[in-house]
Amino acid sequence: MNPLDTLLELIIPAAHAQAAGGAAPAQGGMLSTLLFPVVLIVIMYFLMIRPQMKRQKEHKAMLDKLAKGDEVITNGGIAGSVVAIGEVFITIEVANGVELRVQRGAIASVLPKGTLKSA
């Protein structure tokens, strides 16, 4: 006999015995059992999903407003001035004559004008 079959024979009769011997569950117990996961999902939405979506929307709006001459900092910590903007890549000048091409999504934030000169 297969060990899995033996295991199933031990589990299934026990489940039938519990269902037959116990009384029917109260409706209040069933409602609270179903209500807990729904409340948990709602809490997760407001604490995790909604703020993340808001940050993504703000980041996309910042990237859409980028213009030549803006001073930016990348996710890697490289600061520079925007020289050219493409669909996917942005060229930033990090020093006189030194230009880097980075992906649009790699721009972490836009710095106030004059920040790089004062640093």
Radius of gyration equals 29 Å
| Number of discrete domains | 2
CATH topology of the largest domain, by name, is SH3 type barrels
Low-confidence runs: none
Number of helices: 3
Q: How much β-strand is present in the residues?
A: 15-25%
Q: Would you identify the CATH architecture of the largest domain?
A: Roll
Largest sheet: 5 strands, antiparallel
Number of E-type strands = 5
Class inferred from helices and paired strands:
alpha+beta
The run of helices and strands is HHEEEEEH
Question: Mean pLDDT, nearest integer?
Answer: 85
- The dominant shape is elongated
Beginning-to-end CA distance, first to last residue:
78 Å
What does this protein structure show overall?
The structure is a single chain. It contains three helices and five strands; from the N terminus they run H-H-E-E-E-E-E-H. With 119 residues, it is of the alpha+beta class. It folds into two domains: 22-65; 67-118, SH3 type barrels (Roll), CATH 2.30.30. A five-stranded antiparallel beta sheet has the order 4-3-2-1-5, covered by helices on one side. The longest helix has 38 residues, at 27-64.
